[in-house]
Amino acid sequence: xxxxxxxxxxxxxxxxxxxxxxxxxxxxxxxxxxxxxxxxxxxxxxxxxxxxxxxxxxxxxxxxxxxxxxxxxxxxxxxxxxxxxxxxxxxxxxxxxxxxxxxxxxxxxxxxxxxxxxxxxxxxxxxxxxxxxxxxxxxxxxxxxxxxxxxxxxxxxxxxxxxxxxxxxxxxxxxxxxxxxxxxxxxxxxxxxxxxxxxxxxxxxxxxxxxxxxxxxxxxxxxxxxxxxxxxxxxxxxxxxxxxxxxxxxxxxxxxxxxxxxxxxxxxxxxxxxxxxxxxxxxxxxxxxxxxxxxxxxxxxxxxxxxxxxxxxxxxxxxxxxxxxxxxxxxxxxxxxxxxxxxxxxxxxxxxxxxxxxxxxxxxxxxxxxxxxxxxxxxxxxxxxxx
Length: 387
Ligand code: MLT
Description:
By secondary structure, this protein is an alpha/beta fold. It contains twelve helices and 13 strands. The strands form three sheets. Strands 2-8-7-6-5-3-4 form a seven-stranded mixed β-sheet, with helices on both faces. It has a four-stranded antiparallel β-sheet with strand order 9-10-13-12. Helix 5 links the parallel strand 3 (about 120-125) and strand 4 (about 145). Helix 10 runs parallel beside helix 12 (about 375-385). The mean pLDDT is about 95. Bound molecules: D-malate. D-malate binds near residues 41, 42, 43 and 174.
């Protein structure tokens, strides 16, 4: 008899983003002409940069000129080498430690397979819901939430008297938009070294960091290559949410056996990412591509500044928005789902309730700055009507 994996049934709530989509669809069912101001899921609102398009076109042409079969499971050397040159040159990471994939979610699900089910996992609260959910789906039962609260500027504090095996960190954190400083991250690396933990460092939003005291990569911290696996994506820094491209760095220094089983896992379970998408990634990392993609990021940052300023002018408190495309808005009263409903129904603003990212997110709303100037103008127009 077929039996389903009961670990999946332990997830009792619907995944956050489809739930938001459902609420949007319900509203549009009631009011088909409603013009939504979409600041919900962090998805791009600009077309691909010209260099990226050129990279895709060239690759498609090449594939039409000669047979092009399977590529290496871990990604083509041209991309792995360029990633190291652009991102990790200063930190002693080798191209053979970079593994290309379709994105961070798949990499996280893949990596956590390498560890025993009974490992003690730490996840931030609030944070990207995937970390906790995939841990539950993988049958893990020992999961501790690390509160990121307002009193500490939403930075995760290293716990005293506790140990974890696997630690999920996200910086800049989604949803708060708060990025870990060198000092804060150094404490976590030290904690992992002392307790022999492994840190999964999600740096999906590294491209948005502008603060001088914030590292873009965990490998900027001395000794991190002995305890940390870093995850990056082209989604937010180069607009690849629809193309799909990311990578993770698995340093050999964590342990030779971890590195080896990761290579074995990848070779067995994946045939890699498509050639045109990897070529597009290479183009995004060319001199010109980097300029074009940085300009797109800058444009999202500008929208973020305006959103934040307009809320502050109305007397609200907001965090984030500086090193991240998310604005973390403290709501005046009530709970974040009720406030979400009010924004949606009365002002047609689609946001994300903070509690969707964990209990410590209650009392906040996340707004995405992956929007156009026109959307921000509409937001400004309606937000002053908030009662
Ligand atoms: C978000 O809105 O938090 C993200 O864009 C969703 C994702 O990256 O999967």
